[in-house]
């Protein structure tokens, strides 16, 4: 089934590299990515998305190796966009390019306070079953982001505290799926956040993954028409997803994992209602 309704932003990996270390995955991988392999892997993801969604490309930029991770360009709702304010200086050079892209592509760019880090759809994910925006903080985005987004977008938000530096963005450990399912790694969250998740999502819809699967970035998944594109997942998790009516598709993204990103990080859904 094709849902021509979705459009996804990607950025080709022409200048992708591990050029600095701002998360634990990047440690020991300085200049260690295989360029050809990265291009092949990115293209495989791109080709897997194409039957389900239109893909738009953001121009890659020299010296901005993490621009490939378009999930961090900003957060989109309808035709409005909030452009990311990166915590680390290494990524702040992306902001003017992200701003220009949204403005040139018909989005109304909303004002965001200068001093409040917010890393876009990396830390803010719309639930697919209820009117709710999940917002992560603890490593990158500021703790006030959930409150600010609620005010700015008029959406109910649930603020979740991340506690494991390997899962520094919310989209590395939580993925809302169609029908209100929630794929997530509970140990990445503090106890009150786990309790909040349990109070908002019925048990039958919670797909909690173990550490081995979480470390494959199974939660960093792109869900489109029931297909779930992901870097890796155990046969057991794949069976659980099939049972729930989804079709997992494994697309190895080893080169991007060295930078701390996988399928979802490399995409931004531009159609959000
Ligand atoms: N190297 C990038 C960083 O640490 C990876 C970003 C991954 N993006 C994401 N949405 N999780 O910022």
Report on this model:
The protein has 273 residues and is α/β, with parallel strands linked by helices. It has one domain: 5-stranded Propeller (L-arginine/glycine Amidinotransferase, Chain A), CATH 3.75.10.10. 24% of the residues lie in helices and 20% in strands. The chain has a 3-stranded mixed β-sheet with strand order 2-1-15, with no helix packed on it. The protein is globular, with a radius of gyration of 17 Å. The model has no long low-confidence stretch (mean pLDDT 97). Bound molecules: arginine.
Termini separation comes to 20 Å
Present as ligands are: arginine
CATH topology: L-arginine/glycine Amidinotransferase, Chain A
Under CATH at level 1, the class stands as Alpha Beta
Mean pLDDT: 97
Q: Give the DSSP E fraction (strand runs of 2 or more residues).
A: 15-25%
Order of helices and strands: EHEEEHHEEEHEEEHEHEEHEHE
User: Uncertain spans, ≥5 residues at pLDDT below 50?
Assistant: none
- The outline comes out as globular
Kindly provide the radius of gyration, computed on alpha-carbon positions and rounded to a whole number of angstroms. 17 Å
């Amino acid at each position: 089934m094709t849902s021509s309704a979705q459009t996804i932003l990607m950025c080709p990996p022409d200048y992708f590299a591990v050029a600095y270390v701002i998360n634990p995955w990047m440690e020991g991988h300085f200049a260690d990515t295989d360029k050809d392999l990265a291009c092949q892997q990115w293209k495989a993801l791109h080709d897997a998305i194409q039957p389900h969604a239109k893909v738009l490309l953001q121009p890659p930029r020299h010296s901005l190796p993490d621009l490939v991770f378009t999930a961090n360009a900003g957060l989109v709702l309808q035709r409005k966009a909030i452009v990311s304010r990166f915590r680390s200086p290494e990524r702040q050079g992306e902001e003017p390019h992200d701003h220009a892209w949204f403005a040139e592509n018909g989005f109304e760019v909303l004002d965001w306070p200068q001093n409040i880090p917010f890393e876009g759809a990396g830390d803010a994910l719309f639930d697919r079953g209820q009117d709710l925006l999940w917002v992560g903080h603890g490593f990158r985005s500021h703790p006030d982001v959930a409150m600010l987004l609620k005010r700015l977008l008029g959406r109910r938000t649930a603020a979740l505290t991340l506690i494991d530096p390997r899962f520094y963005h919310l989209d590395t450990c939580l993925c809302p799926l169609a029908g209100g399912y929630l794929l997530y790694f509970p140990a990445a969250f503090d106890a009150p956040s786990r309790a909040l998740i349990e109070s908002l999502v019925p048990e039958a819809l919670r797909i909690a993954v173990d550490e081995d699967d979480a470390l494959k970035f199974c939660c960093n998944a792109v869900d489109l028409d029931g297909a779930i594109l992901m870097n890796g997942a155990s046969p057991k998790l794949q069976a659980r997803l099939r049972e729930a009516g989804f079709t997992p598709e494994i697309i190895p993204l080893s080169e991007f994992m060295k930078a701390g990103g996988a399928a979802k990080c490399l995409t931004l859904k531009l159609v959000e209602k």
